[in-house]
């Protein structure tokens, strides 16, 4: 009985080896590499017409010095310094700027959390597409509604600027 188990195990291992062997030899063999590096490969020469040679010609650029550039770093810094000196409530500007940075940071965290919830990003994308379609139909499709949108935008600009 023990001999039949050993014989069965031996025959199954030989069958597995045979299967592995056939799998290895199923791949094509590569030709042996020659040690000489001067192998000759056929090279096809291509002649270009005049228009093609102009198209593939390298572009020429000139290096310019910093004196010729239209933007001067010192000029930008002096303009910024003058504008900063003209600001009366510097603390308010700093608070608003810091608040804007914190708002952008918090919104990126919120968007990351929403994106991690399954199916919610796709649902919100569908809602956005639906609202975009409604907006186009309501305000952009017809001439009268475009005029209405333009007057709404102008009145909003006046409210923000404080001229109304």
TrEMBL record:
Q: Where does the record place Polar residues bias?
A: 58-68
- InterPro entries noted in UniProt: CAAD_dom, CURT1
**This protein's UniProt keywords:** Membrane, Transmembrane, Transmembrane helix
Annotated localization: Membrane
Transmembrane parts of this sequence: 93-113, 119-137
Where would you say this protein principally sits, based on its record? membrane
How does the record say this protein sits in the membrane? Multi-pass membrane protein
Identify the residues that the record assigns to the Cyanobacterial aminoacyl-tRNA synthetase CAAD domain, covering every copy: 79-162
A GO CC annotation recorded here is: chloroplast thylakoid membrane
Q: Where is this region: Disordered?
A: 53-72
The UniProt entry, under PANTHER family, shows: PROTEIN CURVATURE THYLAKOID 1A, CHLOROPLASTIC (PTHR33222:SF4), PTHR33222
Please report the name of this protein according to its UniProt entry: Protein CURVATURE THYLAKOID 1A, chloroplastic-like
Native species: Populus euphratica
Identify the coding gene. LOC105134692
């Amino acid at each position: 009985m023990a001999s039949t188990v050993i014989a069965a195990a031996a025959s199954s291992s030989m069958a597995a080896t045979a299967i592995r062997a056939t799998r290895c030899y199923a791949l094509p063999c590569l030709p042996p590499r020659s040690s000489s590096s001067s192998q000759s490969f056929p090279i096809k020469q291509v002649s270009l017409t005049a228009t093609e040679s102009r198209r593939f010609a390298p572009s020429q650029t000139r290096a310019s010095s910093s004196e010729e550039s239209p933007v001067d770093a010192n000029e930008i810094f002096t303009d910024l310094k003058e504008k900063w000196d003209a600001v009366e409530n510097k603390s308010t500007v700093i608070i608003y700027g810091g608040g804007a940075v914190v708002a952008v940071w918090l919104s990126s965290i919120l968007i990351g959390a929403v994106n991690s919830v399954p199916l919610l990003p796709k649902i919100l994308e569908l809602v956005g597409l639906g609202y975009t379609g409604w907006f186009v139909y309501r305000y952009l499709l017809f001439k009268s509604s475009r005029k209405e949108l333009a007057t709404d935008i102008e009145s909003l600009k006046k409210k923000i600027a404080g001229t109304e």
